[in-house]
Write the structure tokens for this entry.
Amino acid sequence: MKEFRVLLVVTILSCCCIPLDLPAQVWFSNPGLRLEIGKQGQLGSLVCPAGNKDYLFKGDTSFLVKIKTAAGWESPGSMTFQKEASSISLFYSRSRVIVEVKVVERTGYLVFEITGIMPEGRVDFITWGPIHLTINKTVAEILGASSDDTTAVGLMPLNVKTLGGFPLNDEGSDPSRSSSAQKTSYGSVIQAYSMDRSRPRKVSGWWGQYPDMPVDPVMGETAKGSKVALFVCTNKELLDRIGVIELAEGLPHPLFEGNWSKRSPRSGRSYLIADYSEETIDELLEYTRRANLQTLYHMNAWASWGHYELNSEFFPHGLQGLKTCMEKAKSKNILLGAHTLTNFINTNDPYVTPVPDKRLAVTGGSIITASLSENDTVIPVESIKYFTNSKADWLHTARIGDELITYGKVIEGNPCKLAACRRGAFGTKPSSHPASETIVKLLDHPYKVFFPNLELQQEIAVNLAKRFNETGFSQMDFDGFEGCLASGQGDYAQEIFAKAFYENLDHMVLNGTSMSKPFYWHINTYCNWGEPWNGGFTESMQQYRIDNQGLFDRNLMPHMLGWYLLTDSTTLEEMEWMLARAAGYNAGFGMATSLKALRNNPLTPELLDAIRDWEICRRDKAFPKDLISDLRDPSKEFHLEKVSAVAWDLYPMYHLGKQYGKTVYKKGKPRRIAIQVE
């Protein structure tokens, strides 16, 4: 660790007075970065010494840390620096708040950590930045980095309490992929933030779906401890620089077969999605092997989400039956995976029935105004505020004590009433209840599920990790990752769920997600977005799939095209249309199907062989660079024919019209495609 180069040191700001003597500026430098912080806590310059170029945009002030109190947002009015403690003190004159920031210089980056906020309980949010930059050729919204032709400047959260982006709402959630870096008219901004979660709050939960939702405090969880790394490097060094920071700062750095997952050849591999069982595992493994796909992935492996017991329909011998399947898959070098919906809880799960867990998430509640017998179907309540949200209420379920009750009508009046009630819903026990007992509205979803509060959510993350340890499953998706917003804790809840799952695993699990977040980026293996249920290969969300490829490029993620559906009528032309796009973008995919479809489609052998051949050439980067734009073009079609163990002919295919209801093609002039043989 190197000493800071300080141009001016003055008396340290005390906690009881406004500083009178202030430094003109303080400089921090290492071989890759020279940062100036001015006397009001503003950044004065952000220079890459190699080219002596300042990347800081001067048309808008960039503060190291801003705060939000009950009075609103506030920038610091003054700054002092204590060299011996490597600490900056920022004073906010309107709120009379002091924020202490420790600065540590590492090789290649600077670490900033909030070590104190005084007085406690006054600051709701802090932001790192926004730092205004002059560059925006590539803006990595998840990574929090912005680049020009040669150089990247990044701001990386170093723990889960530090979220990428800017606080857009009171729950701390961002419905976009992320906004750790954002393009602007003058360049870009990089930014991160933390918030005080240690006090009871009411928020507009889940992107505003649940207004005035009560949120329990997270004891000790304040902005103190918020921590970021600021770095400058060449574009070519960006991924390696992130890896260095991960290892040095204790961030997740998953290895798969000895390789960092971000560089593993396993990342971005295509896989087969089909529900296997003890009875059908051999046949489905053979289909997977023939297509040379990495994983056989189960959509319905669990009896319920929450406790994640195995589904006896597929595994009648339970864990032992699944382990037999695992041994067969391992012998063929195929992974087995299982799908989940993150923290969703099925209504048949033990967290719901026969005794509902008190930690099921609620949108709010009231009290009953009269005693109830176990047979009453009209419930008088003091307020119907939380029972009238018809835009976000699918199961119409309330909880009183250990009983769940569904209601069919909400009646305003004196008293207000829940009417057409079904007592003892979801297998709970109808009971009598005294007047003034609390009644709460359970938070639910169109999938007809419930959700946990933050405490129960973390228990479920551990449950899931334990099941993956017991079973040996090696691939999953955090599908429905947004379900973590049910806790009212915003993106923080998503980050800590993934972290708890990851930290409780005893083996590497390849994982995708429905949403991307900056801390989770370190854990994530791939993002495979695009669903096949609303059209064929060429229609279902195709532009969305293509648009995602740019996001993957910017954020150093493997390219994936999403899920496609192989049915009993899928043609070779449809399959090769998709495979050409995968080759053009060097993107993996998920091929969803069923044993019935594979058995009934007469072209199944040809389809699987086509997948195998195209994927071999794609993964070997054998397609000529001058063909890439054509392979990406959805209006162009190709056919790949094998001519030897290491060579194929790639034919452009031209439509000649229809004959007897089928499209007639003409082959163009082939290009020889060959793979490298070690």
Summary: The CA atoms of residues 582 and 588 lie 6 Å apart. The chain has twelve helices and 42 strands. The longest strand covers residues 647-659. The two ends are 43 Å apart (CA to CA).
